Amino acid sequence: MERTGIRLGRRPRSMKSASRTKSSRAPSALSRSPFQGGFTLLELVIVLFILGLMTALAMPTFVNFYRKSEEQQTTSRLVQLLRFAQQQAIFKRQVRTVGIDFDTHSYYLKEDPRPGDYSYEIRRRHQTPLPKGFEFERIEYPEREEEENTDEAFVNFFPNGTADRVKLTIRRVNDRGMTENLFIVRVNGVTGRVKVREKKDDEESYF
Q: How many Å apart are CA 67 and CA 106, to the nearest integer?
């Protein structure tokens, strides 16, 4: 009888340990993180909507920045060539000339003339066209009291630092050929300095 009592006393302990094992395994399924299941369709639609809205708001700013950068690069290249021609005229002690081609809307620097070879003088070192959408509108010589509308015009720089007093107008046109912006390149006749800026709508004369 004593042995039977001992055996009967051990059985509840084994059942208690089994219940502990079951209870320890059960919470594992309940403790799963709710973020492991991925995004729902509604959440993806909201994210795409926010991204599209941000892109639509930023697009005008990006387009305006690109246009301003293109305008600055276009005018800066021409100004750099004009300033280079002035420096060459002073250092080499001879007249240097920049040609403006209204037919192809390009510009170039004349080569140094060789003795007895006048054809080499008018030969173009390189011809830089204006980017698409930019055109030379007109060139004015205030000292001559006339406006040049020929197919080709010239800006001369002299060894003493002076230059032709010139007002050159560049315009930007859209796909329909309408003028959007005007830019004025001015060459000071006394100092030979070259400046450029955007022309205002109410501006009549730059000189």
A: 20
Please tell me the predicted confidence (pLDDT) of residue 116.
Answer: 57
Specify the number of domains making up the chain. Answer: 1
What CATH number corresponds to the domain at position 163?
Answer: 3.55.40.10
C-alpha–C-alpha distance, residues 9 and 69, integer Å? 92
Phi/psi for 135 (5° steps) reads -145, 150
DSSP string, 43-106: HHHHHHHHHHHHHHHHHHHHHHHHHHHHHHHHHHHHHHHHHHHHHHHHHHTS-EEEEEETTTTE
Q: Tell which residue, 130, 85, 141, has the closest CA to residue 111.
A: 85
Q: What is the rounded CA–CA span in Å between residue 105 and residue 131?
A: 9
What does pLDDT average to in each consecutive run of 10 residues of the chain (207 residues)? Answer: 49 50 49 60 86 80 80 92 94 92 90 57 70 92 67 92 94 86 93 89 55
Q: Which of 187, 141, 195 is nearest to 162 (CA)?
A: 187
Residue 87 backbone phi and psi in degrees, to 5: -65, -40
Residue 115 lies in a domain: yes
